[in-house]
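protien #1 (seq + structre)
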Amino acid sequence: MEVFYYLVFGGLAAVVAGLELGKSGKDRVTTSQAFNSFKNNYVLVYSLMMSGDWLQGPYVYYLYSQYGFDKGDIGRLFIAGFGSSMLFGTIVGSLADKQGRKRACITYCISYILSCITKHSPEYKILMVGRVLGGIATSLLFSAFESWLVAEHNKRSFDPQWLSITFSKAIFIGNGLIAIVSGLLANLLADNLGFGPVAPFDAAACFLAIGMAIIMSSWSENYGDPSDSKDLMSQFKVAAKAIASDEKIALLGAIQSLFEGSMYTFVFLWTPALSPNEEDIPHGFIFATFMLSSMLGSSIASRLLARKLKVEGYMQIVFTISAFTLFLPVVTNFLVPASSVKGGSMSFGGTLQLLGFCTFESCVGIFWPSIMKMRSQYIPEEARSTIMNFFRVPLNLFVCVVLYNVNAFPITVMFGMCSIFLFIAAILQRRLMVVSDLHKLSTSMQSFFIVP
């Protein structure tokens, strides 16, 4: 079975390398030196921010268990993180639009560094504070940085099509390569060097501090709507009005929530799905394989975006494939006989699911730069961070409900639910394409009949 893991990983690595090295002229876009410097600066900062996040992932649950907390206590800590992101996310998003995106990015670094420091304490209340800080930081990570990038890109008058280059490169490195390296580094610090499970959090704080220094020294400030006449409630009203009055924004928010909700649910479910009878599986190696699959997806997305294919069109296919891959555990549960032996290696059904999960992670890799591209097109600049965090409210609520009831339903029911959500996302993506095309047609007709 170990050979199977290496074959999957090696095959994915070969495909990713082939795609990156074999890019033709159609897959490359000619840009300026100024843009390349800007892009490289952002990708560096984004990679440092993501390393601060990825380093913590493998050892959060283990650290809490080492402090003596049971599954219920740990579950409440996780719920606190997603809950704080849901409650405070819209507030910090509005503050980012009004007070400045650069300040918001620095606030992310400070919040996450403080969250890492709390991991040194075995006190439950202090750990809970750390989770709340981590939830706030997560909201900023997935809104403030992208909002700063889009505004700064436009302020410097770069070609709008070049945004997709930055998105793809940031996801390929930050969500792929950095994730793999961070997992290996976390394992080296905690296990091989014997520094214990707190060491990855200390390393994360160091990377965040380095990234914060680069932001403070090289980034300029930009805003959504800095006018003094608009308070926090006014920002909320502007965002809510934009979502309610523009079907494209509402559809985009629903699509994002459905996909990311299914994605985060998958994070909790893949381990029990692959080892239902406590099979001995290499969790770290499988995680690295998933991240390599995500790199494959982002590499594919960069080619699709470089060739200026319609995002709204190909994402329908991506969501449909995603739905089928997460329905695979339901199919294998009925068609493949389950092993009654405790322990041992992964079953045949597990190997099929692993291949399906790798396909799903490739879809995730395509999703990130593509959804970023659509957000840059449809979300208005004056309330970008606020609207993006509005999108995360149903997502975080959904994840909290799943976490609270994770033991209440069979795993096949949970995967079936995610599959349905992804099919709905595909349907909504189709609707978004139709509405977008109608809007463009209407705009062109109006301009045609306007008398000079």
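ok now protien #2
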Amino acid sequence: MYRQLLGLRLLSRRTITSSARRQADNGVKEKQKLFQEDNGLPIHLKGGVKDALIYRFTMALTVFGSGYVVYELFTAAMPKKA
């Protein structure tokens, strides 16, 4: 039993230390330049097309939700006559 644990410990140490390390590119500097440049865009739209689509979808959902709330309040305030 002890041999198996020792072998497992040795195997795990080998795979962890000998595994290939991947270097991720550090894109912080590019993002800082993108968000700090003065191009007249609000900060929530400086990310590009993806940010613009998310913003428009959120605004449409907000307008639709507000309209639906007003509709439901109106139907609750004016019950149908039997």
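Helices lie at 2-18, 28-36, 49-77.
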